[in-house]
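A.,

Following up on our hallway conversation. Structure tokens first:
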């Protein structure tokens, strides 16, 4: 019997997320190059011993909300947690936009389009300018004309790494008749946030994650910050008991001692700037400045360069979209010794 008898066409048309595994210096997923300190892991294990495992997590989420609210300077009711910010992207789409339009910049984080199409939405892409900035007139004109059900804008942008003009973002939020999601997954590396603008804009939603600066990609924990009523509605679209007790214990421990994260960010930013300056010296590539924990660069015959780097045991990410990005690669900022391995391999391959 044909699969179309069982599945929606939107599901059949999608390509499943897949990332090939390779051995070597792993610089392809914008992860922290370091794990959290062993001392914190010990605290987590000790906390898990004290927590009853046979009971569903009821009070834990509220406790975590209070802890994070204090850390951010917001109210607990401004927060929603989920097992990864990707899950919140899905919940926001499900809650606001089925068979409608979703507006994004182009290029951008691919999960927005995946989730949009999964719910039968038409994705409207506004191409970024040559320097990856948002064209103000075109974006605002498109916003007014198309009247989307949802807008996604990462800041810093992925995979380009640049920050968008703050005044323009505020103008977009003020103009939109829908929720505008500003994805701040990499905000710790840029030092820029719209958190202080939440009080003035009840349609603003900010996404954050523990996966990048907090070095907890394996934990799968993200959160959103918004007006309490928006949070209440999004909660309805998330499964109950979604945060396990291991996740709770780990998050509480790292929020109690965030100094390690701040030190990690300092080193990553220093290494990011060093990588950028060294890559600028290689004439056959074009590297773009970044405010995140990765760098985007373009090189002739990008596929061949990617494969040659793999043969040198250096794993990068291809980010070709067939539109603006054709021979583009993205390198995550690793530990200093990992970055040296990458630079030496890149110099060897492209001269």
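Then the amino acids I'd put at each of the 351 positions:
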């Amino acid at each position: 019997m044909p699969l179309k008898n069982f599945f929606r066409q939107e599901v059949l048309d999608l390509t499943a997320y897949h990332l090939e595994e390779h051995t070597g210096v792993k610089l392809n997923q914008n992860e922290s190059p370091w794990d959290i300190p062993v001392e914190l892991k010990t605290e987590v294990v000790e906390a898990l011993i004290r927590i009853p495992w046979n009971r569903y997590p009821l009070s834990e989420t509220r406790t975590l909300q209070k802890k994070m609210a204090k850390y951010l300077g917001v109210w607990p009711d401004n927060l929603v947690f989920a097992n990864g910010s990707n899950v919140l992207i899905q919940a926001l789409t499900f809650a606001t936009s089925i068979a409608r339009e979703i507006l994004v910049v182009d290029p951008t984080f691919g999960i927005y389009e995946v989730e949009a199409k999964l719910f039968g939405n038409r994705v409207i892409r506004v191409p970024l300018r040559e320097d990856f900035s948002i064209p103000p007139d075109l974006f605002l004109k498109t916003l007014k004309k198309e009247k989307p059900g949802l807008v996604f804008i990462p800041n810093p942008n992925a995979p380009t790494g640049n920050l968008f003009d703050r005044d323009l973002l505020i103008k977009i939020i003020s103009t939109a008749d829908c929720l505008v999601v500003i994805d701040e997954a990499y905000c710790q590396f840029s030092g820029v946030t719209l958190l202080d603008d939440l009080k003035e804009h009840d349609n603003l939603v900010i996404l954050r994650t523990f996966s990048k600066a907090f070095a907890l990609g394996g934990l799968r924990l993200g959160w959103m910050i918004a007006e309490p009523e928006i949070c209440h509605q999004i909660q309805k679209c998330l499964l109950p008991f979604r945060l396990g007790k291991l996740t709770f214990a780990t998050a509480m421990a790292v929020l109690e001692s965030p100094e390690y994260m701040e030190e990690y960010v300092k080193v990553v930013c220093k290494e990011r700037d060093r990588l950028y300056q060294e890559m600028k010296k290689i004439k056959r590539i074009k590297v773009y400045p970044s405010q995140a924990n990765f760098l985007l660069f373009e090189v002739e015959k990008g596929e061949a360069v990617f494969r040659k780097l793999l043969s040198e045991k250096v794993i990068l990410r291809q980010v070709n979209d067939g539109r603006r990005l054709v021979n583009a690669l993205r390198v995550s900022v690793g530990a200093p010794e990992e970055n040296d391995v990458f630079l030496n391999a890149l110099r060897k391959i492209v001269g």
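Residues 3-35+260-350 form a domain with the Aspartate Aminotransferase, domain 1 fold (CATH 3.90.1150.10). Curious whether your intuition agrees with the design.

B.
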